[in-house]
TrEMBL record:
Molecular function as annotated in GO: transferase activity
Name recorded for this polypeptide: Transferase hexapeptide (Six repeat-containing protein)
Top-rank taxon: Bacteria
Classification via InterPro entries: Hexapep (IPR001451), Hexapeptide_acetyltransf (IPR051159), Trimer_LpxA-like_sf (IPR011004)
Gene3D superfamilies xrefs: Hexapeptide repeat proteins
SUPFAM superfamilies: Trimeric LpxA-like enzymes
Keyword hit for Transferase: yes
TM helices/strands, residue ranges: none
Length: 185
């Protein structure tokens, strides 16, 4: 009965079933009471930082910052597609500063990350990078250039193409995920 009640409460509040209620309790403490990441519209891990969330556009089923230690600087804009996973300790950086005057920000093109991407633990994506749909970024990678075609695995410092993924298989998985999401599962 207790588990059933938790499920009913979680559904009523719009909470994700894969996240424990303790995650949301800490979110209330840090975001609502202590005002850390207060402007973010979704639950964020208390060790993650999202700078300028008004410049961060996310698709359905994507919750950047729910993993521990994520750093997102959206000063110049970041767009992340549907059902993209952002692992622990990932850095998404859309802005930089002047090399001499480090208090002076520099304009940079926005970051664009497609749908169904996976950013592994400790990966860093730098300003102006575009990652196409189904791009998997290996743990610890530093992505300095774009991979706009997607359907690939990249890793290393700087990140380089390791493998192409089967586009038909990926697209079939995307259709299944959208159907599952539409059915409320």
């Amino acid at each position: 009965m207790r588990k059933g009640l938790k499920h009913v409460v979680a559904r009523a509040l719009g909470l994700r079933k894969e996240m424990p209620l303790s995650f949301y309790a800490l979110d209330v403490l840090f975001r609502r009471i202590l005002r850390q990441n207060a402007e973010v519209k979704w639950a964020v891990h208390h060790t993650s930082t999202i700078r300028n969330p008004r410049q961060l556009v996310v698709g359905q089923g994507t919750f950047p910052g729910d993993s521990p230690g994520v750093y997102i600087n959206a000063d110049n804009g970041i767009t992340i597609g549907d059902f993209t996973n952002v692992g622990p300790q990932v850095g998404l950086i859309s802005a930089n500063h002047d090399l001499v005057v480090n208090t002076k920000g520099e304009a940079a093109p926005p970051l664009r990350i497609g749908s169904f991407c996976w950013l592994g633990m400790g990966a860093v994506v730098l300003p102006g990078v575009e990652l196409g749909d189904f791009t998997v970024v290996g743990a610890g990678a530093v992505v300095t250039r774009s991979f706009p075609a997607g359907y690939c695995v990249v890793a290393g410092n700087p990140a380089r193409l390791l493998k192409q993924l089967n586009q038909d298989e990926c697209d079939a998985q995307a259709r299944r995920e959208y159907e599952r999401h539409a059915a409320g599962k």
